[in-house]
């Protein structure tokens, strides 16, 4: 139970945008620059040539966790929200 004088804390979005959404910093209005920290567990196929150099030919993401998203302009990590892309607002 929250105290009467306490201010509710907004939880920042910890999800990646999809085709219909984008991030927005509600602190400063930034739509384009974010620092994203994420952890990925991947399975990769490495192909080595006879000289010992390799190339990753296939990568499969087994899991991914977004740990934090911060605004590059104002530095806030508690004000990032998912909003519709402009195309979605126009209905196209």
Notes on the protein architecture:
With 92 residues, the chain is mostly beta strands. It has one domain. The chain is 5% helix and 47% strand. The protein has one helix and four strands; from the N terminus they run E-E-E-E-H. The chain has one helix at 86-90, and strands at residues 21-25, 34-48, 54-71, 80-84. The protein has a two-stranded antiparallel sheet with strand order 1-4. Strands 2-3 form a two-stranded antiparallel ribbon. A hairpin with a 5-residue loop joins strand 2 (34-48) and strand 3 (54-71). It is elongated, with a radius of gyration of 19 Å. 7% of the residues are buried. Mean pLDDT is 86; it is low at 1-11.
Adjacency order of strands in the biggest sheet: 1-4
Number of domains: 1
SS-based structural class? mainly beta
Mean of all residue-level pLDDT scores:
86
Shape type: elongated
Q: Count of DSSP E strands?
A: 4
Keywords, please?
single chain; 92 residues; mainly beta; two-stranded antiparallel sheet; 47% strand
Summarize the structure.
The chain has 92 residues and is mainly beta. The protein contains 1 helix and 4 strands; from the N terminus they run ββββα.
């Amino acid at each position: 139970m929250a105290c009467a004088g306490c201010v509710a804390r907004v939880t920042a979005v910890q999800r990646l945008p999809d085709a219909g959404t984008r991030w927005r910093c509600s602190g400063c209005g930034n739509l384009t620059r974010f620092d994203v920290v994420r952890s990925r567990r991947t399975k990769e196929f490495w192909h080595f040539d006879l000289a010992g150099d390799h190339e990753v030919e296939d990568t499969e993401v087994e899991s991914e966790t977004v740990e934090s998203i911060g605004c590059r302009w104002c530095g806030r990590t508690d004000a990032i929200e998912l909003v519709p892309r402009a195309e979605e607002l126009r209905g196209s």
